[in-house]
Write the structure tokens for this entry.
Amino acid sequence: MAVKVPILTYHKISPVDKQSIYPGTFVPPALFEKHLRHLARSGFETMPLVSLFGDSMPAKPIVLTFDDGFQDYSTTAYPALQRYGFNGTVFLVADLLGQQNEWDMKIGDVGYPLMSVDTIRRLHEGGTEFGSHTRTHSRLTSDTDAHQEEEIVDSQTVLERELGFPIETFCYPYGSYNETSVNLARKAGYKFATTCEKGLNDGSEDPLKLKRIAVRHDTSQPVFVYKLWRAFRLGR
Ligand SMILES: [Zn+2]
């Protein structure tokens, strides 16, 4: 039987900011720690997305993804992951390294710092995997083909130039993509791309349309356990 791989979606590992219009993007640090403890006790081992279905898969693999590249990945998530011998995969917004989540601020959300080039390089040396999340966090299905190309293909060029290491994975912002997006991700040479569709991955799906499991501020410990159970038992 093919191994089934859950890919979890996190954003910020910080206390919920009551001023934010997106409470679901926060997971408080103490709750995150409970998630990690559950994964460790259940025998899960993290792996980089780029190695999915390769030769060096752990017996019970899981991929922990962190969208947008918020600063709290370096200050809070990464140290917690290290305590469990885990690694994360972070998707970066190429034009906004060291800046803020301008795409949210434009529609009235609070600004939060995004990791700088120096921080990203240090974490990369420490085992964190980094992928692209476009140049500006664009909603791709609203973009022209030419703009999609800038966001999907050029973001890889920008990140590789800034960071000095290969960018081999991609994440569609808002889970918004169409066939043009997938074709451009293929053209860029990304090995894998993640969506927001629910479920596990077993290698039979398009590697540029991977499913994930969303983790939010209200994903309490029992809900977290249930979400994983449901994904393995019911496939969603
Ligand atoms: Zn995002």
Observations:
- The chain has one domain: 7-234.
- The helical segments are 29-41, 72-83, 102-105, 117-125, 145-163, 179-188, 221-234.
